[in-house]
Amino acid sequence: MKKAERKAASRTPAGVHPAGLSIFSIGTLPSKIxxxxxxxxxxxxxxxxxxxxxxxILNILCVDDYPDSVELLRLMLESxxxxxxxxxxxxxxxxxxxxxxxxxxxxxxxxxxxxxLDLCRTIRxxxxxxxxxxxxxxxxxxxxxxxxxxxxxxxLVKPDGLDQLxxxxxxxxxxxxxxxxxxxxxxxxx
Length: 190
Fold this sequence. Notes:
The chain is of the alpha/beta class. The chain has a domain at 55-177: Rossmann fold (3-Layer(aba) Sandwich). It is 48% helix and 12% strand. Strand 1 (59-63), helix 3 and strand 2 (83-87) form a beta-alpha-beta unit. Helix 2 runs parallel beside helix 3. It is globular, with a radius of gyration of 18 Å.
């Protein structure tokens, strides 16, 4: 880092993005501002964060009935190099699942029609080993217990769980890269 860059970075106050954006809760933004923010994130991701690597790419299905929320998840996960499909209902998610396999599922708990718990059970019955993350604003203990009983691998609370979600996806990506490099049993050359 050059001396001028270090000096400029040291003047950036805590909680403010170096480009001048304040760090704030997405849930408090009006829809038009959120859409502009998503466009900015997509633009920034395409310029600064998308790199060609030798790592594996996770195929992720995100299911949330709120379009802005599923779009934010899609943009954030794609900026990390993952392939993301999105669905607004459990029924649409099941159509995706019938067409292809996914490495990770991110589900909202409250969906119209079939809820996230029933969708989680359906996915778990099809594939007992696939990671399923419930990512919901429902933060009560009974909601979390219900999620784990339905077969969730993890339960993260919106919006604070987004960093954890990205960390989990990055960890799964490393595991997948290891499996591709060394085989499922961790032995090279077999």
